[in-house]
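DM from R.C. (forwarded with permission)

"hey, sorry to bug you on a friday — could you get me a structure for this? deadline for the figure draft is monday and I only need the backbone to look sensible"
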Amino acid sequence: MDAFMMTLSSGVVSGVRPYLMLFVLGLSGRLLEIQEIPQVMQRTDVLVITAVLVIVDFLADKVQFLDSVWDGINTFVRPVAGGAIGFLLGGETDTTTAVIYAIVGTGAALGTHGAKAATRAAVNVSPEPVSNVLVSVIEDVGAVVLAILAVLLPILAGIAAVLILIAAIVAIVVLVRFVRKWCARREARNGAVPEGTAPPLK
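My reply, with the result:
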């Protein structure tokens, strides 16, 4: 049960901060000697690489519009990271369990990644650029808290992950509608004839 809940919550974090999740798992496995965490995650080279990527991810996510490009690049990385973590955690039992955990991790990562991408698209069309940094910081804090819970209190983290996924699905629907309405209003405004000008003669 602990490994499953750890997979679910790790997948949710991976959909937002995949490198952070890998780093926290690896470091926790090495320092706390948690049996569920595979040795491959605890290797020094893996920890160094993920630590560097955590910093890059943190900085890239704070710049307006660059964050959307970064999201696009990580569209494949985040679900793969969630699935890989699930496979490794489940692989300690048997292959069937590893595959099931990989599917769970991938699905959870896709859910939160979709919500993150939709949120960032809505924020980028907002007139307040500071909101971009604020949203990113909130994501950072949430990811750190859930990543730590995934290691120390996996059952609680799993319950929180389910609630987050439900909220993510709702957020995706609402934000997609918002962006569509904003685009429609923008097109209508750009297509309107300015005041004081006559329409073109036929």
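R.C.: lifesaver. The chain has one domain: 2-189.
me: no worries. Residues 12 and 164 are 8 Å apart (CA to CA).
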